Amino acid sequence: MKNLKAKISIVFFILLALSSCLKPVQYPDVPNVEFVQFDIQGDSGIITFFFTDGDGDIGLNPNQIDPPYDPGSFYHYNVYLEYYEVMEGQLVKGTMDPNGENAVFQQNNNQPYDTIPNGFRIEDITPFGQNKSLKGNMQLVLSPFYNFNSNHNDSIRFSILLIDRNLNHSNVVYTPVIKR
Fold it and tell me: How far, in Å, CA of 61 to CA of 128, rounded?
C-alpha cells in the first residue's frame, strides 16, 4: 500500500513538473471574435461569441469615464452590435424609424442618424498573474432583440465588434440571419 502511494505521488509530481514547463498560450494583442450562437427566449435573445486577447486588456471599470472612455465618446462602450433587418431581400441597418419617413441621413455614408443603440460596456476581466492572455465565451442579453416597431423584424442579423482598453478593434463578425 505504501509502495502504491509512493508511485502515485511520484507520478503526480512528474506531471506537475511537466505542466509547469509548458509555455502559456499566446494570442495577438488585438482582440479576435468568432460568432458562437444566438438563442431566442421569448422577446429576449442571448448572443454568444468567442474571443481571444493576448494582453488581457478587455473591459472597463465602472469609474473609468475619463477620455477616451467618457460618456458620449465612441470608446465609452467596448462591445458594439449592429442590428440589420432583411428588407426586400437586402440586409439594411435597422433604424428607430422603420418606415424611414423621418430618418435623417449622414452626408458621407448614407447611414441614418437614428440607428438603434448598440453599445455595451463590459467590465474589466483582466486575469491576475503573469499570463494575461484571455480566451472565452462572452454572452450579451438583448431584450427585446428586435425592433418591435418595424414591419421587417422577422429576419434580422447582428454584427459584433470588441474593443480593448488600448483601443484595438477586433475583427467584425456577423450572425447568420435570425428568423423570429
Answer: 15
Per-residue pLDDT for the chain (180 aa), expressed as one digit of tens each? 556 555 565 655 555 555 555 567 789 999 999 999 999 999 999 999 999 999 999 999 999 999 999 998 999 999 999 999 998 888 888 875 555 544 433 334 444 445 566 899 999 999 888 888 999 999 999 988 988 888 888 999 999 999 999 999 999 999 999 998
* Spatial separation of the C-alpha atoms in residues 66 and 73, rounded to whole Å: 10
All structural domains of the chain with their residue ranges: 26-179
Report whether the peptide linkage leading into residue 67 is cis, meaning its omega lies within 30 degrees of zero: no
- 26-179 is a CATH 2.40.50.140 domain: no
CA-to-CA dists, residue 136 to 30, 44, 93, angstroms: 15, 22, 28
0.70 cut: is pTM over it?
yes
Scored b (16 or more CB within 10 A) or e, 144-156 reads ebbbeebebbebb
